[in-house]
Amino acid sequence: MPTLNELIEFQKKFDKNYGLDWSNLSKEQKIEKLSRIAVALSGEIGEFCNLVKKVLREYDRTGKLPDEDMNEKLREELTDIFIYILKAAGQLLGMDLEKWYFEKMNYNARRFEKYKTS
Predict the structure, then answer these.
(1) What DSSP line would sit under 11-70, residue for residue?
(2) Domains of the chain with bracketed CATH
(3) How crowded is residue 74: how many other Cβ atoms within 10 Å of its Cβ?
(4) What is the rounded CA–CA span in Å between residue 70 and residue 58?
């Protein structure tokens, strides 16, 4: 399995192959791209939420859980969201996403210690 940082590198190469090389952008250009990524990310989250709304509506009306087609659509939207996160983290913010993830999880473990069940 690839690491998050390997996925970021894969995304960078993919984007470069399709004319989206952001490696030499100025800070101002990166801010502009970041704002566009935020808008795109919001759109993808909206699409995911719209599907969840449909799942909930169907469940409330019929008691049916989502079928494989709907699960596939949900997975597709989550993947789109993930791609934009990789692009923002790796290409615009220069994040070591793995490092930040584990630091945040350690912080959350301390923050939510009183709710720990095991």
Answers:
(1) HHHHHHHTT---TT--HHHHHHHHHHHHHHHHHHHHHHHHHHHHHHHHHHHH-PPP-HHH
(2) 4-13+26-115 (1.10.287.1080)
(3) 17
(4) 11
Contact 5, 96 (CB under 8 A): yes
DSSP 88: I
Residue 103, token pair as written in the block: 């630091």
Tens-digit pLDDT string for the chain (118 aa): 999 999 999 999 999 999 999 999 999 999 999 999 999 999 999 999 999 999 999 999 999 999 999 999 999 999 999 999 999 999 999 999 999 999 999 999 999 999 999 8
Amino acid identity of residue 68, one-letter, is E
Q: Which residue is it, tokens 């470069």?
A: 16
CA atoms of 78 and 105, how far apart (whole Å): 21
Nearest alpha carbon to residue 77 among 111, 40, 105, 38 = 40
